[in-house]
Amino acid sequence: MNHIYNSQAVWVRAALFFVLLFGCLSVQAALPSSAQVTASTTAFLKRFVNKDGEVNYKAIQRDPKQLDALLEDIASFSMTGASQADLYAFYLNAYNVLVIGEIVSNYPLTSVREMPGFFDKKQMLVGGEKMTLDELEHNKLRKLYDDPRLHFALVCGTASCPRLSREAYMGKDLFTQLNDQTRRVLQDPAFVKVDAEGKTVMLPEIFKWYEADFGTSGKTGVAYVNQFRADKRVPTWFAMDYYAYDWRLNDQKAEDPKK
C-alpha cells in the first residue's frame, strides 16, 4: 500500500510541476514584445494624432479599445532580454501614451493643470513597476541616458510641448529617429521663434529648466539649437529670451480626416 501511495504522490507532484511549468511558459509567451508594443503604438498614434501633433482626445474617449490595450501592454512589458536601445524607446513611448491615457480619463479639460498631481503624484504601472510621470522622465530616462534629445520626444499634453510624432520610437532606429524629431522640432518656427528684423530669438522654457542637460548656462541655448538647424542657424549675436510656457491642451480643435 505504501509503495502504491508513494507512486501516486510522485505522479501528482510531477503533474503539478508540468502544470506550473507550462503555465509559466504560457504567461511568458503572452507578454508583449518590444516590436509588438512599437507596432501597436504607431497604429494608435497614426489614428488619433494629426500632422500638427494634436491629439483627438474626444475620439479616443469614444473608442478607447486601442488605448486600453496599449496601457495593458505598457503595464505588463517585460524588461528581460531587452537592449538598452529597446528600453529607451519603450520608456519614451510609454510616457507619451500614459499622458494621453490620463488626459482621456479626465476629458474634457483644457489643460493638464486641471489634474492635480498629474506629473508627480499619480502612480502608473510601467513594466510591472509603479511610478509617476516625473519618476519615469527623471529616473528612467534623464538619469540613465543623459540625452537632451529626449526633451523633444517626450510630449506632456500641452501646446508648448514639441509636436507629438505619429510614429513610435524603436530601438534599432532610435538614434536616427531622435535626430529627425529634434531637427523637426528645432526648425519649427512655432517652437524656436526667430525675428530676423528685430534680431531676436525666443526659446521655450525647457531650455531654462533643463539648461544643464543641453550643456548650456544662462541664455546660451542657441548653440544647441543651431546643431539641428543646418542652413537656418540662428545668429549668435541675436538677443535671446524665453517665451512663457503655454499649458493649454494639445487637443485637436476639430476632427479633420485630412490631417
Automatic annotation (TrEMBL):
This is DUF547 domain-containing protein. InterPro entries: DUF547, Grx-like_ET. Residues 1-29 form the signal peptide. Keywords: Signal. Residues 83-184 form the DUF547 domain.
